[in-house]
Design a protein that fits this description.
Blueprint: H1 10-21, E1 26-29, E2 33-36, E3 39-41, H2 44-53, E4 67-77, E5 88-91, E6 98-103, E7 106-118, H3 121-128, E8 138-143, E9 154-169, E10 177-191, E11 196-199, E12 204-210, E13 225-234, E14 261-268
Parallel strand pairs: 3-4
Antiparallel strand pairs: 1-2, 4-7, 5-6, 6-11, 7-10, 8-9, 9-10, 12-13, 13-14
């Protein structure tokens, strides 16, 4: 039924975009020591398990604490942002006789879980205070999702939905402590369908027929007279739309994306 083979890497782009929001956070400690907080894709349990298997924090440089990890919780269709499914966008040059066509995208929300893992509360709060002021509760980011269609950058709201803080202990109360902060976000994105091609129509002829009886119209029959309506785009040499055929450049110099006018002529048949 679907029968299309296409891939724009949209979910991957959303993941990359979300992670980039938090990839430049650092904290300061005593002695003017600055620590950059790494952020990676994956569940926090993955990093806690790695730490349990290798408790010496000084050995692997990739296990610097605190650190952040994020993952996709769910994808949900957003009916409140539904667009006309019959609407579409086009791009391209009419010189080739075809245009690229893509239907309106479907609105989908991608829910992310960002986990902050720290060895002490102070470090966790230092990171948290560099995140919360930017979400009130929404932060808008932009992205070029479908470069093949030359769309303007799309604004993607990221909304902070919830924040939870927990303390984890291994073994007895005096053993190793972890502070985890989980932040739940919703990114309001779009899923785009395949790109197809369509022929460019530059000239339209309409024949108008008038029935030769006063009875109810049953068909064209033998026309008493007719008119021919001819419509084509009009554009001057300096790029100004025009309805004057004499002032317009030839059809092959008018792109489908040009800001053209319409030249309409009516003649008797």
């Amino acid at each position: 039924m679907l029968g299309y083979n296409f891939y724009f890497g949209l979910v991957r782009k959303y993941v990359t975009l979300f992670g980039a929001v938090f990839d430049d956070i650092s904290i300061s400690r005593e002695g003017n020591k600055t620590i950059k907080i790494p952020v990676e894709y994956g569940p926090k349990e993955r990093y806690l398990t790695r730490q349990e298997q290798n408790p010496d924090l000084q050995r692997p440089i990739s296990q610097v604490w605190p650190r952040m990890a994020f993952e996709i919780d769910s994808l949900e269709y957003d009916s409140t942002r539904k667009l006309d499914p019959n609407g579409f966008c086009t791009t391209g040059s009419s010189s080739s006789g075809t245009l690229k066509v893509q239907n309106n995208p479907a609105p989908w929300n991608i829910n992310f879980r960002l986990s902050l893992i720290s060895r002490n509360t102070e470090d966790a709060l230092k990171v948290l205070e560099q995140i919360l002021p930017f979400f009130s509760p929404t932060l808008n980011v932009t992205a070029d999702l479908i470069p093949e269609m030359n769309y303007d950058p799309v604004t993607l709201p990221i909304t902070l939905l919830n924040v939870n803080m927990n303390e984890l202990y291994e073994g007895s109360f005096d053993d190793r402590e972890y502070i985890t902060v989980e932040l739940i976000f919703e990114l309001r994105g779009y899923m785009y369908g395949p790109i197809s091609t369509s022929k460019v129509i530059k000239e339209v002829y309409i024949d108008l027929y008038t029935p030769n009886t006063n009875t109810a119209f049953q068909g064209v029959g033998t026309p008493a007279n007719s008119e021919i309506v001819y419509v084509r785009p009009g554009l001057t040499a300096n790029g100004t739309p025009t309805a004057n055929a004499a002032a317009s450049v030839p059809l092959n110099q008018i792109s489908a994306n040009s800001d053209y006018g319409f030249i309409v002529s009516i003649t008797n048949g």
